[in-house]
Design brief:
Elements (H helix, E strand, L loop, with lengths): L2 E2 L23 H8 L9 H11 L6 E2 L4 H7 L4 H15 L3 H21 L6 H7 L4 E6 L2 E6 L8 E5 L7 E13 L1 H4 L5 E2 L17 E2 L4 E13 L5 H12 L5 H30 L4 H15 L3 H19 L2 E3 L4 H7 L2 E4 L11 E7 L2 E5 L10 E4 L9 E4 L6 H12 L4 E4 L16 E5 L5 E5 L2 H12 L4 H7 L2 E8 L4 E8 L2 E8 L1 H7 E6 L2 E4 L2 H16 L3 E10 L10 E10 L6 H10 L3 E5 L4 H11 L10 E3 L11 H8 L3 E3 L3 H13 L4 E5 L5 H6 L2 E5 L5 H6 L2 E3 L4 H41 L8 H11 L1 H8 L22 H27 L4 H18 L20 H19 L1 H7 L5 H23 L6
Parallel strand pairs: 11-26, 11-29, 22-25, 26-28, 27-28, 29-30, 30-31
Antiparallel strand pairs: 1-2, 3-4, 5-9, 6-7, 6-8, 6-9, 10-31, 12-13, 12-25, 13-14, 14-15, 16-18, 17-18, 19-20, 20-21, 21-24, 22-23, 24-25
Length: 942
């Protein structure tokens, strides 16, 4: 794929390496020395210029944009179109100007339709590049400046604060309780804590705390980093390179129609050459036989096929748009119908991408919490006393009547930096920008919108408190915050001090084992109780049980003290455990069930932890009950090229892949494509872009998906509903069935024309249909019924069948037999009409008119033989299709126009056949339909 760098930097990826290799594995001092920079002073102006010349601008390489002319030219890269162009050229060469112009008009119409439909081409590289179009702060010559991010160079020292977008890959020099949202790059659903300590050189991207990556965002804390890589040498640049190199796959429909076109070329050339040669050998005029050959070529090529196929796909695209699925590539509409495997991301696809407090485990009892995401209307229900974290939930418990429950909710609200605010009109928008701003929108208990900002965990605690009527602004009026001890990676806890009756209430939250280690007492129904070693171990076990259920667990504690300078983590009173979950989407389970019934496998591929992935898979029913939930970690895929075929087959049966990076996603897609799977890939992050392009069809989330993912994908789900994919699969299957139906119709009509011309030539009879009459039928009476068949609604049982064989052509052997059979029936009727007309004394021109009308009408009635085998002749998809009746009415009117409009009748060489001629044409045209009526009623299709 051709490409160029912004600003003229045309070097390939391998020519622009990172300034410091594996900076995450080296001590800060060593990195700074390798970059030749002092943190207090930064780079000088001269050093900046020298490094910019060496490394180029901090920009992602831009994909060369397809011009309108290139898109228009692509519409003619079709074998059927090429064959029509040859037929037009031959017509012009032999002076058949009317035929040539008519074929040229067909080509122009088809090109116009395809051009308009495909004008919105994929622009994934430009979307990736837009991530860098921001400003950043940098220390140079001892002073902090704000500069365009593209001017950063390796060695620049960058100060960092909460809310900053990271514009290059940085090796951290300082990290003060620093956290970053890397969800668009790694798939992690929660912010990642950062520090300066080096890690192993082979640590995956998601496990590199000393690094901040281009395209991510700082969600908490502050720090300072030194630029280790810019532009295409960053991790984001590596993904851009992968997306660029992966290219785009031909869709199954494109491959099938191309194969059909190749077959038509050879059939057409063979028939035309044979007939012409036989006629010349029999002593007929050379010019006459050349004209006959052209007539056969025109008859063999279904001029309406490109137009109808394009319009059928376009209509499918419009239908999907009404179902919130936007199609970027026209031919991809059908691809989902052939899909055998869907690779789906977890965060934001199977889950809401919002943390929700799901369970509370207190010494006084266990509670479940209703509601999802930012829904502030939810009840608290006490659970039974069975073992584990589960148990049957009882009736609703008012938190005001449960002091221990209210206390833990108050601590969660107080020890918190997030915020819930009423949504304003301008804030009522869809979120999920690629810059990673942590903002969400939901509804409060009055139905009004609310905005949430801050760490998703803390937002979830605020929502849980709001369900109990506890608002942070109201609580802090009674408990003014005096001091905050920010979350520390080493202590894994956070604390806030609040004034209360002359003393200070200390609210603490953190990791279960850390809080339990710092606590000395429990708050029970009877008061404070000593936290013995046995009780502590019991609570640690409960912590592990909740984690095993796929919950992210926090422990909360409190104490009272006389001084705001007191150690916040001494002699705490343990309140209990809070289990949070990124909830699965409600519509996912039925959607997965529908996929299973349709024979479509769904495999989770995520950057999250294996335990979390397995828990979500179980929650949504990704793996059927009773089957083993096997999870493979991304690092186990590193030697995929060296695995045996048996091991590769085993990997193809794995339902869950966790901690997977972008390159491994490409390997997984290729692994299944090698097994002839038709692979769809869903995703919403920057890290999904290469896989979205490599898959047979890429499906991006529209609301939470990044611009990168949306531009790289073939289809974008506006509502982020997994169920929309199922609707798209159904529509894709309907579209293919309709395409197969109208192709059968068109070709059987064209085969009849070939047989008619060839048969008449073989027996030295007048041509029953003339070349221009053939073109008229192919453009008018063939196209409109075929188009009506393409607009059919489909069968109700279409999703109860397994996917088609990926290697199955548009027309199987049984379909070709039907085409030839119906073509023969129509041929016999037309030839019979010609000979009967001549036997009844009609002159040749009137007899040819009768045979022409017999063919036209037989082709119109032939549409009703396109129903499914075994279906009722008066109640089936074709009869119920209003477009079919409209097409028949239009075509009958056009046939009458062809006969009675003077100018057109002269061009086509037809005259009024009279009442007897019309009766003969109508009667014989019904014979193929009557035979087809019997044949289609015999046995149902599989």
């Amino acid at each position: 794929m051709a490409s160029r760098d912004e600003g003229g930097a045309g070097a390939r990826l391998e020519e622009t390496p990172a300034a410091v290799e594996a900076a995450w594995s080296r001590p800060v001092e060593e990195v700074l020395e390798a970059l030749g920079v002092a943190t207090e002073h930064g780079l000088s102006a001269g050093e900046v210029e020298e490094r910019r010349a060496r490394h180029g601008p901090n920009l992602l390489r831009r994909t060369r944009r397809r011009s309108a002319w290139q898109i228009l030219a692509a519409q003619f890269k079709n074998l059927v179109v090429a064959l029509l162009a040859v037929a037009a050229a031959v017509s012009f060469a032999f002076g058949e100007w009317v035929e040539g112009v008519a074929i040229a008009v067909v080509l122009a119409i088809n090109a116009a339709i395809g051009f308009v439909a495909e004008l919105r081409a994929v622009r994934s590289m430009e979307a990736l590049r837009r991530l860098g179009a921001v400003e950043t702060r940098v220390r140079r010559d001892g002073e902090v400046h704000r500069i365009p991010a593209e001017e950063l160079v390796p060695g620049d020292v960058v100060p960092l604060e909460e809310g900053d977008v990271v514009t290059a890959d940085l090796r951290l020099i300082e990290a003060n309780r620093l956290e970053a949202d890397e969800s668009t790059l790694t798939g992690e659903s929660v912010p990642v804590a950062k520090d300066v300590e080096p890690v192993a050189v082979d640590a995956p991207v998601a496990d590199r705390p000393p690094m901040l990556f281009k395209g991510t965002a700082v969600t908490r804390g502050s720090g300072e980093g030194v630029v280790a890589a810019t532009g295409m040498a960053t991790e984001l640049g590596r993904i851009a390179h992968l997306a660029q190199e992966s290219g785009e796959e031909q869709t199954p429909l494109e491959r099938r129609l191309e194969a059909l076109g190749r077959r038509l070329i050879w059939v057409t050339l063979a028939i035309a050459a044979a007939t012409t040669g036989i006629g010349i050998a029999a002593g007929r005029e050379v010019l006459l036989m050349v004209e006959t050959g052209i007539a056969l070529a025109v008859a063999a090529v279904p001029e309406g096929l490109p137009i109808v196929a394009t319009l059928a796909l376009a209509r499918g695209m419009w239908r999907m748009a009404r179902r919130n699925a936007l199609i970027n590539r026209l031919a991809a509409v059908e691809t989902l119908g052939a899909t055998t495997l869907i690779f789906t991301d977890k965060t934001g696809t199977l889950t809401e991408n919002r943390m929700t407090v799901r369970r509370l485990w207190l010494p006084a009892g266990r509670y479940r919490v209703d509601g999802e995401g930012l829904d502030l209307d939810g009840a608290f229900r006490r659970e039974g006393d069975g073992g584990g974290g589960g148990g049957e939930a009882r009736s609703e418990v008012p938190p005001a009547d449960e002091p221990a429950l209210r206390a833990i909710l108050e601590v969660g609200v107080l020890c918190n930096n997030a915020a819930l605010e009423p949504a304003t009109a301008e804030d009522d928008r869809e979120t999920g920008s690629p810059e990673g701003g942590g903002e969400e929108t939901g509804e409060d208990d009055d139905g009004a919108g609310v905005d949430a900002t801050g760490d998703p965990l803390e937002v979830a605690l605020l929502v849980a408190g709001a369900k109990a009527g506890l608002r942070r602004d109201e609580l802090t009026e009674d408990h003014p915050e005096q001091r905050e001890e920010a979350f520390d990676r080493e202590t894994q806890m956070m604390a806030t001090f609040h004034r209360l009756d002359g003393r200070f209430r200390v609210a603490v939250k953190g990791a279960g084992e850390k809080v339990l280690e710092a606590a000395t007492a429990l708050r029970t129904a009877g008061g404070r109780e000593e936290l013995t070693a046995g009780l502590r171990e019991r609570w640690l076990e409960r912590n592990r049980e909740m984690a095993a259920d796929g919950l992210r667990v926090l422990a909360l504690a409190e104490k009272q003290t006389d001084s705001a300078d007191d150690d916040p983590y001494r002699e705490l009173t343990f309140l209990g455990l809070v289990g949070l979950q990124d909830p699965p989407r409600r519509e996912v389970r039925p959607a997965l069930d529908a996929c299973r019934r349709a024979g479509v496998r769904v495999v989770m591929v995520t950057g999250d932890q294996p335990a979390t992935a397995a828990a979500i898979a179980a929650a949504v029913g990704l793996v059927p009950e009773g089957e083993e939930t096997r999870t493979v970690v991304g690092r186990d895929l590193s030697a995929l090229d060296e695995t045996s075929e048996e091991e590769r087959d085993e990997l193809r049966r794995v339902p869950i892949f966790a901690r997977v990076d972008p390159a491994q996603k490409l390997d997984l897609i290729a692994l299944h494509q090698e097994a002839d799977e038709i692979v769809a890939m869903t995703g919403d992050g920057v890290n999904d872009a290469p896989a979205l392009k490599k898959a047979d069809i890429g499906i991006a989330m529209g609301r939470r998906g990044t611009q990168v993912a949306q531009e790289a994908a073939d289809m974008v789900l506006r509502d982020d509903q997994f169920a929309t994919i199922v609707a798209a699969i159904e529509q894709g299957r309907v579209i293919f069935a309709n395409i197969r139906r109208f192709v059968r119709y068109l070709l059987s009509c064209n085969v009849s024309e070939i047989m008619i011309v060839a048969g008449a030539t073989a027996i030295d009879a007048p041509l029953p249909i003339l070349p221009l009459q053939i073109l008229f039928l192919n453009l008018v009476t063939d196209v409109f019924p075929a188009l009506a068949l393409a607009f059919g609604e489909g069968e109700e049982t279409v999703m109860e069948r397994p996917p088609r064989d990926p290697d199955e052509p548009v027309l199987a052997r049984r379909h070709w037999l039907e085409i030839v059979g119906y073509g023969l029936l129509i041929t016999l009727s037309v030839l019979a009409a010609l000979f009967l007309a001549m036997a009844l004394g009609f002159r040749e021109r009137r007899a040819v008119t009768i045979s022409f009308l017999t063919l036209a009408l037989a082709q119109l009635w032939h549409v009703f033989t396109m129903r499914d085998r075994g279906s009722h002749p008066l109640d089936n998809d074709v009869v119920r299709n209003p477009w079919v009746w409209g097409a028949l009415g239009l075509c009958l009117g056009l046939v009458l126009t062809a006969v009675y409009l003077p100018g057109l009748a002269d061009v086509l060489g037809v005259i009024d056949p009279g009442p007897r001629g019309w009766a003969l044409a109508v009667a014989l045209s019904l014979v193929p339909w009557a035979v087809g009526l019997v044949l289609r009623s015999r046995r149902p299709t599989r």
